[in-house]
Amino acid sequence: AWRRVATAGMPAGRAEGGVNLLHVHSVQDATAVDAYLPAVSAFLRESRSRGWRLDTMAERDAALADMIAILCYMENAGIQRGRNLLSGFLYVYPEHSGHLPEADRALKAWERFGTSGERDPICEEAWAALTVAALRGEDEQGALINGLSLDCLLRGQDWSRLRLSDVSASAARSGSLEVALRLGVRARGERTKTGAGQGVVVERPWLAAWFRDYCDRRRAQGKIFVFDLKTYEFRSRFATWQGRLRIAVGTPHVLRHGGAALMIARGDERKKVKVRGRWGKDKSLDRYTKTHLLTAQRATLPQDVLALGRAFLADPIAELIRARQKLLAPRDG
Q: Fewer Cβ neighbours under 10 Å: the N or C end of the chain?
């Protein structure tokens, strides 16, 4: 397209639009491969094993509704599994659009009742303990994703598409380090859930310094993307860390919920939380601000996990060093 601009006089705007369209398709294809196709494949295998008939649209609709119920009530899966299944089925079989009323009602009921627990926020102590668990397992990428997801209120699609060119670091007037992330880069045809051309600045100084150093190392290695992990891989690791700590806080989306709830709990205005979390509507923010659940979760944490989280929050830099070196000596020296 650019060659045609240079040699044949094609309008630059049309060429740019074509390139952007290719970027949009590449993002959609990545979603299909990583999320939609595995969900549809799992549904078809389950249908075969259970002997479900799929000859007519009505039968396929009923089978999808049953599968959503199994994911929700029997497997206690995250609701994104249900969304991926229904969206993926329509992606593979677009002729079913508008003809799956039972499956659509089942998914809406799941969202309404919230049985997956994805809407509960994570308290700061549990988040800190999970960071330590990741580092002790020599998983720096996972630890950083865990840290940034709460601090910057990131969705999985935000960090998974992040490129090193989207990360900028500079000194503020006060001399402190500022690290900014560009999200939904319009020039690449990308957008976040609530639009394109968005961004956020890392709030916690120790996390900003750590993230800048990490990005510098990735650039020196000639990398393009900030993280190599896929969202489903991080979800698996997030569950593994919980198992090591003997806690159950839910899926990675609780990090975004926790970041918003912590801001509200410390007295930040809702408008500030809305802007930082990149929500388009006040109603969307409501379910993220259940601050009483922070206290409720904190009360359920094992005492050693609670102590570990509080030690980290009291001196993050020192605890990062301890975690990387797997030090178990008493902190009093």
A: C
